[in-house]
Amino acid sequence: MRYRIKLFGEITIKSRAVRKEMVRCLRTNIRNTLRGIDPKVRVADHWDALEVRPSAHLDDAAHAAVEASLTRIPGIHEVQVVEAYPFIDFATTAERLVALWREALPGRRFRVSVKRRGQHDFGSEDLERYLGSALLEAVPSARVDLRHAEFDVGLELKDQRLLLVSRRLAGLGGYPLGTQGQALALISGGFDSPVAAWRLLRRGLKTHFLFFNLGGPAHERGVREVTHHLWQQYSASHRVNFISVPFGGVVDEIQRRVPAGLAGVVLKRMMLRAANRVAARARIPALITGDALAQVSSQSLVNLGLIDAVSERPILRPLIASDKQAIIADARRIGTATYAERLPEYCGVVSQRPHVRPSPAQLEAAEADFDQAVLDAAIAAAEMTRSDRLLESAPVLGEIDEIATPHTLAEAADATVIDIRHPEERDAAPLRLPHGEPLAIPFFELASRAPTLPRRRYLLYCGQGVMSRMQALHLTDQGLDHFGVYRGEA
């Protein structure tokens, strides 16, 4: 068994030199991707297709893995599974062809195409007419249509060797990875950013990943998992880097210094400032984000312009006009939805009543008191991991205590609840407990104050349950394992 690789259509209309270079890259990418399954795989270059020749000893499971990998390599339009047989005569060839096509042709239009090389005592058209008649006899409801066929029933005859396409598998399309340069994708692990990265991987961009850690070890582990999935499934031909920047201190500084309605946009601007510095150090010329116009307040046209203003590099936004449901459908298609469904959206807890049309002057005033040393420290603490080692060095998560309802809390008389919401949110909706009053410690002060609190059982509370869990896991990672979560659900 071997595989014929049909090129993505846009590759075939490039100039001869560009097409030749793209095919060379695709051939290398196929070898690199399949090497882990079959170290001796061969990839031959023909003008209209590539031919993948696996080792003869591969079992069915290995062949299935080869086929699955080929359908996920950018640059491939179709993977044709080709079976080789000795050519005996017209009748035997017809039997093989009817067996392959009997189920697909009822009620459909088809034509038979024969490519023939070598010395034979018949012409290609003679064999085409014979095979067409045999198919019509086997499938009376089908009909031949040479100009507008729905199926092109193709075969090749090389001397006395018959090659039949037994199956056709849809490829990923796009351009071979690496032919369009490289970019740095800001990835959070939700639905949007992995899909944005995937769409540009498919267009041939070698994509590295930049993660701003807002949620401690749990957040990082989840994002490492989805990034490893993306890399392993769609770009394993290239090793790339995953850079993790601890951004909790930046979030704390924003909460202290920036008006609540501007916090989300300021956070995105700080992320882009950091991303530009990381990209400059790695000589990466462009950034990728998962923004979709008007999906959330920070993605209004005004806010996107204000965010872009701090970037020295072009920002690629492949989702900009996509509906959320289309993004989720893509996430399910590429296998990242399951990760997104179990990862909370951390950025959403930063800004209360966000502005959608702030002025540049408002933002400049909001950032005036921000201590830039905090951003410098976050960038200096960035850690880089190679894509093939992402899961090896993923942080180990600690266990945290969690109480969901007021009824359960009433039975936990030894627990003290700490309301970690922003003071404005806390004043707008005071927390009512079955007994006693909560401590009020905003989450941006919790890390510094927690070690000084008397050693006892504490439960953290926030409106959505995201920030409280994030802070509890972070404190557990610091050795403070007496902090849990109170969800306050009815």
UniProtKB/TrEMBL annotation:
<dbReference type="GO" id="GO:0005829">
    <property type="term" value="C:cytosol"/>
</dbReference>
<dbReference type="GO" id="GO:0000049">
    <property type="term" value="F:tRNA binding"/>
</dbReference>
<dbReference type="GO" id="GO:0140741">
    <property type="term" value="F:tRNA-uracil-4 sulfurtransferase activity"/>
</dbReference>
<dbReference type="InterPro" id="IPR054173">
    <property type="entry name" value="ThiI_fer"/>
</dbReference>
<comment type="function">
    <text>Catalyzes the ATP-dependent transfer of a sulfur to tRNA to produce 4-thiouridine in position 8 of tRNAs, which functions as a near-UV photosensor. Also catalyzes the transfer of sulfur to the sulfur carrier protein ThiS, forming ThiS-thiocarboxylate. This is a step in the synthesis of thiazole, in the thiamine biosynthesis pathway. The sulfur is donated as persulfide by IscS.</text>
</comment>
<dbReference type="Pfam" id="PF02568">
    <property type="entry name" value="ThiI"/>
</dbReference>
<dbReference type="InterPro" id="IPR026340">
    <property type="entry name" value="THII_Thiazole_biosynth_dom"/>
</dbReference>
<feature type="active site" description="Cysteine persulfide intermediate">
    <location>
        <position position="462"/>
    </location>
</feature>
<feature type="domain" description="THUMP">
    <location>
        <begin position="64"/>
        <end position="168"/>
    </location>
</feature>
<feature type="binding site">
    <location>
        <begin position="186"/>
        <end position="187"/>
    </location>
    <ligand>
        <name>ATP</name>
    </ligand>
</feature>
<keyword id="KW-0067">ATP-binding</keyword>
<dbReference type="InterPro" id="IPR004114">
    <property type="entry name" value="THUMP_dom"/>
</dbReference>
<dbReference type="InterPro" id="IPR014729">
    <property type="entry name" value="Rossmann-like_a/b/a_fold"/>
</dbReference>
<keyword id="KW-0547">Nucleotide-binding</keyword>
<keyword id="KW-0963">Cytoplasm</keyword>
<dbReference type="Pfam" id="PF02926">
    <property type="entry name" value="THUMP"/>
</dbReference>
<comment type="similarity">
    <text>Belongs to the ThiI family.</text>
</comment>
<keyword id="KW-0784">Thiamine biosynthesis</keyword>
<feature type="binding site">
    <location>
        <position position="290"/>
    </location>
    <ligand>
        <name>ATP</name>
    </ligand>
</feature>
<feature type="domain" description="Rhodanese">
    <location>
        <begin position="411"/>
        <end position="490"/>
    </location>
</feature>
<dbReference type="GO" id="GO:0052837">
    <property type="term" value="P:thiazole biosynthetic process"/>
</dbReference>
<keyword id="KW-0694">RNA-binding</keyword>
<comment type="pathway">
    <text>Cofactor biosynthesis; thiamine diphosphate biosynthesis.</text>
</comment>
<dbReference type="InterPro" id="IPR020536">
    <property type="entry name" value="ThiI_AANH"/>
</dbReference>
<keyword id="KW-0676">Redox-active center</keyword>
<dbReference type="InterPro" id="IPR049962">
    <property type="entry name" value="THUMP_ThiI"/>
</dbReference>
<dbReference type="GO" id="GO:0009229">
    <property type="term" value="P:thiamine diphosphate biosynthetic process"/>
</dbReference>
<dbReference type="GO" id="GO:0004810">
    <property type="term" value="F:CCA tRNA nucleotidyltransferase activity"/>
</dbReference>
<dbReference type="InterPro" id="IPR050102">
    <property type="entry name" value="tRNA_sulfurtransferase_ThiI"/>
</dbReference>
<feature type="binding site">
    <location>
        <position position="299"/>
    </location>
    <ligand>
        <name>ATP</name>
    </ligand>
</feature>
<dbReference type="Pfam" id="PF22025">
    <property type="entry name" value="ThiI_fer"/>
</dbReference>
<dbReference type="GO" id="GO:0009228">
    <property type="term" value="P:thiamine biosynthetic process"/>
</dbReference>
<dbReference type="GO" id="GO:0005524">
    <property type="term" value="F:ATP binding"/>
</dbReference>
<dbReference type="GO" id="GO:0002937">
    <property type="term" value="P:tRNA 4-thiouridine biosynthesis"/>
</dbReference>
<dbReference type="InterPro" id="IPR001763">
    <property type="entry name" value="Rhodanese-like_dom"/>
</dbReference>
<keyword id="KW-0820">tRNA-binding</keyword>
<keyword id="KW-1015">Disulfide bond</keyword>
<dbReference type="InterPro" id="IPR003720">
    <property type="entry name" value="tRNA_STrfase"/>
</dbReference>
<protein>
    <recommendedName>
        <fullName>tRNA sulfurtransferase</fullName>
        <ecNumber>2.8.1.4</ecNumber>
    </recommendedName>
</protein>
<keyword id="KW-0808">Transferase</keyword>
<feature type="binding site">
    <location>
        <position position="268"/>
    </location>
    <ligand>
        <name>ATP</name>
    </ligand>
</feature>
<dbReference type="InterPro" id="IPR049961">
    <property type="entry name" value="ThiI_N"/>
</dbReference>
